[in-house]
Design goal:
Layout: H1 4-19, E1 32-33, H2 46-59, H3 74-87, E2 91-95, H4 98-109, E3 115-119, H5 124-133, E4 136-140, H6 145-154, E5 161-166, H7 178-188, E6 190-195, H8 210-213, E7 222-226, E8 236-240, H9 242-251, H10 253-256, H11 264-278, H12 281-299, E9 311-317, H13 319-331, E10 334-335, E11 337-339, E12 349-354, H14 361-378
Parallel strand pairs: 1-10, 3-4, 3-5, 5-6, 6-7
Antiparallel strand pairs: 2-8, 7-8, 9-12, 11-12
Helix pairs in contact: 2-11, 3-11, 4-5, 6-7, 12-14, 13-14
The structure holds pyridoxal-5'-phosphate (PLP).
Length: 380
């Protein structure tokens, strides 16, 4: 059946995206990985693969139902218990994705008449979660603790207030001032929710994230910890007090009204946590390699934030420029991707360069000099 009116509208929008340099194409991995979130190379770790494969043979592929129905498995509850211990919280709940976890958390705890203070660079899943809650979103300038403090202090008394932030920002690679947020949240009776998507598995003595690293665990209400990035598997753990986790089980619609993830994922996650706990050298190596790339890029003339993280944005401004630089890097064998609006603010299209521990020093040196060469022509 044809739908000419709809087709015309869609084709027009795609033409506009094309003209603005915003038409997206999906592209399989090709070349040296400088763009994935597999920071610790756990997605291909032999122990984790073996545990997951063995679980497939025992438990099969699909869970066959929601966790509240026949999709529940003891292995999900066991890994939730283990993650809570790792994170130092009373409990945790596993969602099929970080996107679903943020939607679930925000739409469950935030009510219509509440106020949500949200960093202007927060991930789309946080923005969508706040939208679902129908509460008022008050955007504050990126990582600006002083501004947040003044906004919170001006807020009408009696309203329930939330502050939501990523701990390590996915597109900027910089860290939220968690200790400052904790202080102002305590002063203003505000609930702090932290998305640790890019920090869990990496930061802190035990590798549980930036909340551990900044000593703020006692004062953070909930954290969202994706398991498809450094943990190398999939999904996300929401960690916090038992009463809050119990409430998510009652109310979080992405948890309730969705088929539970494949049960072998729980076995892979157990194995991933074992590796994170028993191989701290992986996160130490990541920190060294990130620092090295930071130094190489700085000497090549690119501005790199201090402290450096495993996410290093090279901001090129125009969409076409970022796409062209990414294409040239790909031709040279480096899998770097261009990030454009609305993923990043307009006028800040960039290469999102990420470090993983499979990158040796020679490769990083070669990458920095290739990038310099490409940018000296593309970025003129
Ligand atoms: C900060 C942040 N939160 C949440 C998510 C969503 O996680 P997932 O990919 O598991 O849906 C992402 C993914 O890119 C992210 O960067």
């Amino acid at each position: 059946m044809n739908h000419p009116q709809l087709e015309r509208r869609v084709r027009q929008t795609i033409r506009e995206l094309d003209l603005a340099g915003l038409h997206r194409r999906i592209q399989s991995p090709h070349g040296i990985d400088l763009s994935s979130n597999d920071y610790l190379n756990l997605s291909t770790h032999p122990f984790i693969k073996q545990k997951m494969a063995a679980a497939v043979m025992i438990e099969g592929c699909g869970s066959t139902g929601s966790r509240l129905l026949r999709g529940q498995r003891d292995s999900f509850s066991a890994v939730e218990r283990r993650f809570a211990d790792f994170k130092g919280t009373e409990a945790s709940l596993y969602f099929g994705s970080g996107y679903a976890a943020n939607l679930g958390v925000l739409a469950t705890f935030v009510e219509r008449h509440d106020l949500v203070f949200s960093d202007e660079h927060n991930h789309a899943s946080i923005i969508d979660g706040i939208r679902l809650s129908r509460a008022k979103r008050i955007k504050f300038p990126h990582c600006d603790a002083g501004r947040v403090a003044s906004l919170l202090k001006q807020a009408p008394a009696g309203l329930q207030k939330f502050l939501v932030t990523e701990s390590l920002f996915s597109m900027d690679g910089d860290f939220a001032p968690l200790a400052d947020y904790v202080e102002v949240c305590a002063e203003t009776d505000t609930v702090l929710i932290v998305d640790e998507a890019h920090a869990v598995g990496i930061y802190g003595e035990r590798g549980s994230g930036c909340v551990e690293n900044s000593g703020t665990a006692e004062n953070v209400f909930l954290t969202v910890n994706t398991a498809g990035k450094a943990l190398g598997v999939a999904g996300a753990f929401v960690a916090g007090p038992q009463w809050a986790i119990d409430f998510l089980i009652q109310r979080a619609r992405p948890f309730i009204f969705s088929t539970a993830p494949p049960p072998p994922v729980a076995a892979a996650l157990e194995a991933s946590l074992t590796v994170i706990e028993s191989e701290p050298e992986r996160r130490h190596m990541l920190s060294e390699r990130s620092a090295l790339l930071g130094r190489l890029l700085t000497s090549a003339g690119f501005p790199v934030r201090n402290p450096v993280s495993q996410i290093i944005p090279i901001i090129l401004g125009q969409n076409d420029r970022a796409c062209e630089a990414a294409a040239e890097l790909q031709q040279a064998g480096f899998d770097v991707r261009a990030l454009r609006p609305p993923t990043v603010p307009s006028g800040t299209a960039r290469l999102r360069v990420t470090v993983n521990i499979g990158l040796d020093e020679a490769t990083l040196r070669r990458f920095a000099s290739t990038l310099k060469e490409i940018c000296s022509t593309v970025c003129l």
